[in-house]
Every structure is written in C-alpha cells, then in structure tokens.
Design goal:
4-stranded antiparallel sheet, 49% strand, globular
C-alpha cells in the first residue's frame, strides 16, 4: 500500500495500539468498501490486512511486536 493509495482511497485512520516503533491502525478502504487494519513502523505501512484475517487483531499485533 503506497502513499497515493492511502491518501486517495482510505480514510478514518485510528490508532488502536502501539509498541515501540510499531503501531496498529484501523482504517476504511473506500475501494474495497470495508474496514481494514495496518501495521506501521516508523510512520510507514509495512503490512495491511482485513478484519479478522488473523483472528483477533490485537493478539496478532502483539505477536508481531514480540517477533520484531
């Protein structure tokens, strides 16, 4: 997901959780018309995924934080 797509096709970004330089955001994807999530590292999106794609989103984020 690049900056152009983020700026033109998404909105309502909300910080859900953070740990160190990692942040979990929820946002609305206007192209796919659904709620999605993104993990940002140092301000840049490094991974985005659908709601419940990995089970509980907060648990998934915490597992990623432990591995980084």
């Amino acid at each position: 997901m690049d900056e152009k797509y983020i700026n033109e096709c998404t909105n309502n970004w909300e910080l859900e959780d953070s740990s160190g330089d990692l942040e979990l955001y929820s946002f609305f994807d206007r192209v796919n018309w659904k709620q999605r999530y993104a993990i940002k590292r140092s301000g840049s999106v490094v991974y985005d995924f659908d709601n419940e794609q990995h089970g509980n989103n907060l648990d998934f984020f915490k597992a990623v934080c432990m591995c980084v």
